[in-house]
Amino acid sequence: MSAMPTTTTWDIEGYGDFCLALSRNQTPEQVLTAYGAEPGEARLMSATQCETEMEVTETNAILRAGKVGMWSFCIEVANPIGFSDLILRRLCDHSEAFSLSRSGHAMTIFKYARDGQLIEWFEPRNPQSIYGGSKQAFFDQIQRISPGSSASMASLKVMSGHIGAELTPEILHGPLPTVNVRNPDRALLTRPVPEFQIPARTGTRSGLGRHLGTIR
């Protein structure tokens, strides 16, 4: 499992693969349920305990959930599943939700959903990757942040501004309900959810970027 960064600020670049999901007005238990976990199986564990005591395999998904302000979150740093449209749809039902993830292909993806609909998704700082659009124009907000910040850190800053709270190192390294989902149905989770898809690419801004195809 990737070690949790120990700097005084949370630097997502200290991770390999990761997924951070945020959902408004849902409890951490509801968030874990959206992932297919049993909240009753969660143990209150620090990041250090999680690294040393949780069994990690190539198929398991280790979820650490918590709450900040009106939002609950789930952070994964090994074999993440929270990027799934199926999970995000559950998290945004009668609410709004974000997911920020990086895959083994070093591709970072930002998604915003509201009231059961996928509203905006893109690869931060890649103008050719934009699908959909929100009134908050999250892509443009990220673009305005200094290029000295990585795409992931700029995305986190914009997300924090929207939720009105910051996921501090103390929160993320401290005790959080933690559960190991053994052998989740990844084939189901990676299957497209037709009613949750944005039908057309809307990115029209200038600049070159790699084509993402249908990757969600």
Report on the structure:
The structure is a single chain. Helix content is 23%, strand content 24%. By secondary structure, the protein is α+β, with helices and mostly antiparallel strands. A hairpin with a 2-residue loop joins strand 6 and strand 7. The two termini are 24 Å apart.
Structure summarized in a few sentences:
The protein is an alpha+beta fold. The protein has helices at 28-34, 47-53, 85-91, 138-144, 151-163, 169-173, 186-189, and strands at residues 18-24, 43-45, 61-68, 71-76, 96-102, 108-114, 117-122, 131-132, 176-181.
Could you outline the blueprint of secondary structure elements for this entry?
Layout: E1 18-24, H1 28-34, E2 43-45, H2 47-53, E3 61-68, E4 71-76, H3 85-91, E5 96-102, E6 108-114, E7 117-122, E8 131-132, H4 138-144, H5 151-163, H6 169-173, E9 176-181, H7 186-189
Helix pairs in contact: 4-5
Average pLDDT rating: 84
User: What is the oligomer described by this structure?
Assistant: single chain
- Broad structural category: alpha+beta
Q: Major sheet, described briefly?
A: 9 strands, antiparallel
Strand order of the largest sheet: 2-9-3-4-1-5-6-7-8
Key phrases:
216 residues, alpha+beta, 9-stranded antiparallel beta sheet, 9 strands, globular, disordered N terminus, disordered C terminus
